[in-house]
Every structure is written in C-alpha cells, then in structure tokens.
Amino acid sequence: MPYGRRALLSFAALLALSLGGSAALAPAGAADSTVTISQGVDPVTMDPLKRTITPTTNVHYNIFDTLVRQDREGKLFPWVATSWKRVTPTVWEFKLRHDVKFWNGDPLTSADVKFSVEKIKDPAEGSEQGPRVATVERIETPDSYTVRYITAKPTAMIAGYPWQVFIVDSKYWKEHGDDVGHSSGYQAEHPMGSGPYIFKSWRKDEQLVTEANANYWHGRPSVDSVIWKPIPEAAARVAALRTGETDLITNVPAQYQLQLAGGRNTRLTSARSIRVLFFAFNTLKPGPQQNKLVRQALNYAIDVPAIIQTVLGGRAYAVNTPLPPNFVGYDPKIPFYHHDLAKAKELLAKAGYPDGKGIDMLINAPIGRYNKDKEIAEAIAGQLSQTGGHFTTKIQEWTTYVNFTSSRGLTPVYELAWGNNSYDADNTLTSLFTSDARLSTYANPALDKLIVDARYETDPKKRQAVYDKSLEIIHDEAPWLFMFQYEDLYATTKRLAWEARGDEDIFCDEMKLK
User: Fold this and answer.
1) pLDDT digits (tens, 9 = 90+) for 219-235
2) Nearest-angstrom CA–CA distance, 313 and 349
3) pTM for this one?
4) How far apart are the C-alpha atoms of 178 and 127, rounded to whole Å?
5) Would you say the C-alpha torsion 496, 500, 505, 507 has a positive or negative sign?
C-alpha cells in the first residue's frame, strides 16, 4: 500500500478507536459471507515451495493441499493421503485420494507430490524448506495414487514433513515456467492450487482475495470469501477490528486484551505458541560477535523476564534453549542465562573489551511481523548498553527485512522468531543451526554431525542423549540471545467462530459465521 494511503487508513482507524468505536462501520462481510483477516505483514510470495514464513504459509494452507494435516494438539490426520505407513525401515508409503483436483481441473497425482518435493530439494531453487525434505533421498511413484519416500537410513520422524509440504500442479508449473529467486516469476503471483479457497487477486501490501472452492474434495467451505488485509501497526489492527473493517487480527498487544475481551462486538482468543523469539549473532561475518565470550556476556546482560513483563504484559515464557519445554529433544537441565550485569562485564573484559569499549553493534529488527518486535529490540538495545558498549537498532519493514534473513545479510545481530509445528527438535536445529541451512548464521561441524545423527536415531532415549549434547553446545556457544516463547493473542469479531492454535496456523475452511 502506498505510504500516504496506509497512513490515512491508520489515522481513520485510530480515530474510530479513540471514539470507542461509536463511528463503527458495517461489520466486515455484512453483505455476504466474507471474512477479512489482518496479519501484521503481507505474504511475500504465492510460490509455496520457497519460504517458511507463517503469514505467508497461512495463505498457502488455504489455497494448496498437503498430504496430511495436524490438529491443534499436533496429531496428524489424513488429508490428500488417506493412509501412510513405513513399509520397510527406509520406505514411507502414502496412498492418495483419487478425487482431488486443482482449480483448473488437473487431477492431483503422485507425480505432483514427487515434483513438489524434488523442487524443494533442488539446490538451484534456494528453498528455505530444504531441511524438511532432507531425509528423502528419492521418491518413487508406483502408480498415480501411491507415493514412496525413500530415505538413506531409518528416520526417527515420518519422512518429508508431509503436513508442511504443499503440493503444486506439475503440469501447470512446467507450462508456465519456474520462479527466479524468492519474489519474482510466474508462480510467485499466479498460483494454481487444489485447496479450499481459490486465489482471485492480490494487490501487494493492500489485500489478497480468495473465494471458496465450490468443487473442493472435502466439501465447499462455509465462508464464501476470505480477504487477507495486512495492517502492520498494532493499534490500527485493533481499531480495524472494533470498527468492523476486519474480522480476525493477529499479534494483539497485551494492553488491548481487556478492551477486546469485553468489547461489544469483539472477543479474545489465545494459545501458548510454538514460536520462540531470539536475537541471532551473525558469526559468519567479522566482528566482536564472533567471540564466544562476547556472546555469553551479552546473554548475561539482558533481563528477559523484565522484557516479558514490561513489553509483553507477561504474555510470554523465558526459554533456556531454542526449544520450548513441550518439544521432543528439550533438555530441562540446560541452565538459563540469568541477568547478571557484573558477570557480563567480567566476560567482556576477558574477551578484550573492558567496560564494553570497542563494542559497537547494530541490532536489526522488523516491524509488524511479531508481537512488539520493534519494542523488544529497543528494550534489548537499552539493556545491552548497560555494559558500556554502543548498541543501536535498525528497524525495517518486513518485506525488506525477510529477504536479508534468507541471504544471511543481517549483521551483527538480528531479531527473528521460529515456529516449529513438528514439536520436535529436528526442524528447529536443522533449519537454524546447521552450517548449510539458508537461515543459519552459525557454523559448527561437531554440532552439524549431532543434528544429523539425531535425525536417524530411532531409539528415543539415545536420540534424546544426542539432543542433550547438541543443546549443551548451543548453550555454551551462545549463537543467540535466548529470549522467550510467545503466548499468541488473537482477537475476532463475535460473528466469527474460530479459536487460536499454538502452531499459529489459520485454516479458513474450519471457520464458521454465526
């Protein structure tokens, strides 16, 4: 959206909020069965095989299909695949439905599944999703409705993350060509899916419109149309909900929770998130952040519980590792970096930076992507400055910021948050800590080996022992400032029946209007 128009809309929404909603608009979708959803940022692409960004994949989940789905507890259930099993120690077999069609009428077959996974695995694609399918050595398609994932060795988890890999129309893709990079190319703006909602139009940073797929194999969705309308400013999102401009908003700041929970036409819904926020050190670029003692010192310099209380109103949970406590692989024995400014200064002096002299670090952060992302970064900079070093923030719009994350271009420190709906250490550690992962800015061959070993260790106790060693290394090396696990706050209009999920997924075909 052009800046002037966005600012005008934000001002109008904020004015309505200040008037207590007395100038409320007609409820969103009053004339028909339309639901408007406002995340903090716009999707970055309609190519479902490239990125791992939740506001983008939330749209993809509604226009593409996956082999299986997850319920809100993380349990897998059949979707395009009617069944799956391990037929030999290294072969996972999926049987597909025969009645799934893409919007153009092409049948969804095993060839499309094979094509989708192989595109992700192709190094030329530069996909962030590579770790999801890394254990799949090759794919066999004995017939049009049978897919077999072949792994090099028996895997601890079901191969290929089948609830996260979207299936594209291989025929359509070949006819229209491949994407180049992350944000250009035909597929990035002209998707062909088989999902419950059909892509109709997209004005970037303004709105993306989808309509119910009347021929959807799982039945026509209850809601006729879904409009995805990004609103980066939190106060403007709240105001838009209260005035009826939108039906569902994400990342509700804590200061608005009582207002929305008790609103005439609004309600609050929340869930303990799988998302862990952190500040990563780019150890691949030169600077003080390459010194382990500096990284440890800065972990001791921050006061995470204070930030949770003052910035997030208590709606988060400090973490001692990259994993939340309910994940497979979590180790409760790993200590926290408790706030200890004296220890932080001692370590900095030992590293050659007495009283923080010589430390000049830029903290990169987005705005609008995570709840209070900008404010958290500013609070961190303030706390780190107590060491005597010089810390400043650089805040960028998400669409610019996210492209730097995938090219390892943010340095020396950058804010990110990772949501892992496998509830297993593998996805987090492989994606964010292995040397060749696109989103990793840390390299350690010893850690790489442990992470790979854990993928193929089928004995749960032995696998946990491998993760214990991995987390000990990560804690000692401190490639992150370890922060917290979010509690996700959403708000909806009362006409919308929908509840928050801890995995942050938004399935519009599960929505109903009252």
Assistant:
1) 999 999 999 999 999 99
2) 34
3) 0.88
4) 13
5) negative
